Amino acid sequence: MTSRPVLLVIAHGSRDPRHAATVHALVRRVRARRPGLRVETGFLDFNIPSVPAVLESLAAEGVRDVVALPLLLTRAFHAKADIPAVLREAPARLRIRQAEVLGPSPLLTAALERRLYEAGLTPADKSSTGVVLASAGSTDPEAIAVIAEIAREWRHTGWCAVRPAFASASLPRTEDAVRELRALGCARVAVAPYVLAPGFLPDRIARGAAEADVLADVLGPAPEVARVLLERYDEVRVPVLTALGA
């Protein structure tokens, strides 16, 4: 029987040690959900092991099939250019398929709500609470459009209002969205960081939330995020095994 492909989780990396610690915690949760699946982690920058180092090691072990999964919430420059470029330089004996980015997904919206409830809100607060959906930001119009659409859809689940905001590259900033929700008359305002791990831009989001009533934690190793990782892996893995005759 053909063994299942290795799952290679590709994270951006950061000088902030909280970033790598959060990525590793998420990967541990993924492993716990799928015992027997080999899950490796590689970083594009700042942290080790690098993606090329992991790929070289897998090839040296005799691994053939790899599903490379970008640990990204939107499909922007890293998913479209950086990661494909790194994967093209992998050892020729490896058969690599790149999975889709994590978002959008109803599971990620559920994870956002989990973090808001952990920060002190309850489902009964939804109708009187405005939420700022605060992402890192991007110069890619596709990524910005996705964030705006998530905010529109999330609003229909019962919140007073939901507004997108961005820590860089795009507007509005978190603090501006907080003020807009106050002006709309929402009794309380919460900020939900749509980011996976702590770091420079999430800290900027937190500073922008100074006038909000509630600041949720980053998504991190939420169980819903781990489920999305495995969904993205399975979307690629099944065609791989079919092609191999498994």
TrEMBL record:
GO MF, one example: metal ion binding
Transmembrane segments: none
UniProt keyword annotation of tRNA-binding present: no
Domain of life: Bacteria
Keywords associated with the record: Lyase, Metal-binding
Cited Pfam families: CbiX
InterPro entries associated with the record: CbiX-like, Sirohydro_Cobaltochel/CbiX
Record-linked SUPFAM superfamilies: Chelatase
Keyword Nucleus: no
Protein name, UniProt field: Sirohydrochlorin chelatase
